[in-house]
Write a structure and sequence with these properties.
With 340 residues, the protein is an alpha/beta fold. It folds into 2 domains: 4-92, MurE/MurF, N-terminal domain (Udp-n-acetylmuramoylalanyl-d-glutamate--2,6- Diaminopimelate Ligase, Chain: A, domain 1); 101-314, 3 Solenoid (UDP N-Acetylglucosamine Acyltransferase, domain 1), CATH 2.160.10. It has 5 helices and 40 strands. The strands form 6 sheets. It has a 12-stranded mixed beta sheet with strand order 8-11-14-17-20-25-28-31-34-37-39-40. The longest helix has 16 residues, at 324-339. The chain is flat and about 85 Å long. The N and C termini lie far apart (83 Å).
């Protein structure tokens, strides 16, 4: 079990201790689950009151909230307590980096290049001429195809598949079961049958991208499918061939994006959004849950519904929709009156 002195945690997040700097912290947790001897965080007065009543030994908090407070608990003061809490969680994560080295069960093709401190865990398979940067970590049962390139400090969790010639940048995190570079869905109808269009392009994943469990990003027919720097993709997302996702986008669970669509920077697609092929979604646009995008969307707007329309219009439609039973009843009464 990990344990740290409170002053060590403060040094990690560049915070300040108020109270006992040598207090031993054995866990971190939320207000409802923090154990005795643990550390929790509070970002407003209400949560601070709950934290003071919790079994936590220390509280991570903004300095202004405890300026005039007297308490037996110790405090870790930080101007951004939620960010600091996220940083502290890494110290207590069960996913601590494995020791560098190559397990005896690893299968490696010809001409592979491995950077310093690479960790290849049991039953990893590398094709020919694979290039791994420094400190890359590959967990058990991953496959990396011929001529794939993976940048420094990238992590592939168990059962990730990286198909041939895919390029992955630095500090990328790919969660279990994700498949990068499977064939795009392309066919030509010929004499009543579906003739497969070979998918000979690639996928490029830029730096600092995170890809959730069982997400699939298809390789391009020709050219590339690209995921921009800093984009975060949730579980069970489908990105089709030749899609271009801009920097710092958010794609939430069960999003499906059809081929050759373009998402500009900082687009947010909420859960179960579907996007038609060959459309463009402008910078900073947000599409609400279960929205269906069938045409280009301008930058900066918030859209809802199927087909996706501006949020204000969607709310107006909903307001009328809920009145339909009453309107139908009034219409039936009016029709009876007209007949009489």
């Amino acid at each position: 079990m990990a344990s740290y002195r409170l002053v060590e945690l403060a040094e990690w997040v560049r915070g300040v201790v108020r109270g006992d700097p040598n207090l031993t912290i054995t866990a971190v947790g939320g207000l409802q689950d923090v154990p005795a001897g643990g550390l929790t965080f509070a970002e407003d007065e209400r949560n601070l009151r709950l934290a003071l009543q919790s079994p936590a030994a220390a509280i991570l908090v903004h300095p202004s909230l405890v300026e005039n407070l007297r308490s037996e608990k110790s405090f870790l003061l930080h101007p951004q307590p939620r960010l600091a809490f996220a940083q502290l969680l890494t110290l207590f994560s069960p996913f601590q980096p494995p020791e560098p080295g190559i397990h005896p069960t690893v299968v490696m093709g010809e001409g592979c290049e491995l950077g310093d401190e690479v960790a290849l865990m049991p039953y990893v398979v590398l094709g020919n001429r694979v290039r791994l940067g420094q400190r890359v970590r590959v967990y058990p049962f991953c496959y990396i195809g011929d001529e794939a390139e993976i940048g420094d400090d990238t992590v592939l969790y168990p059962h990730v598949v990286v198909m041939p010639r895919v390029q992955i940048g630095q500090r990328v995190i790919i969660h279990p079961g994700a498949i990068i570079g499977g064939d795009g869905f392309g066919y030509v109808q010929h004499e009543g049958s579906h003739y497969k269009i070979p998918q000979i392009g690639t996928v490029v994943i830029e730096d600092d991208v995170e890809i959730g469990c069982n997400t699939c990003i298809d390789r391009a027919t020709t050219g590339e499918t690209r995921i921009g720097k800093g984009t975060k993709i949730d579980n069970l997302v489908q990105v089709a061939h030749n899609v271009q996702v801009g920097e710092h986008c958010l794609l939430v669970s069960q999003v499906g994006i059809a081929g050759s669509t373009v998402l500009e920077e900082r687009v947010v697609l909420a859960g179960q959004v579907g996007v038609k092929d060959h459309v463009r979604i402008g910078r900073g646009a947000v599409v609400g849950a279960q929205g269906g995008v069938s045409k280009n969307l301008p930058p900066g707007g918030v859209y809802w519904g199927t087909p996706a329309i501006p949020h204000r219009e969607w709310l107006q439609i909903l307001a009328h929709l809920y009145k339909l039973p009453e309107l139908v009843k009034r219409l039936e009464e009016l029709e009876k009156h007209l007949k009489r």
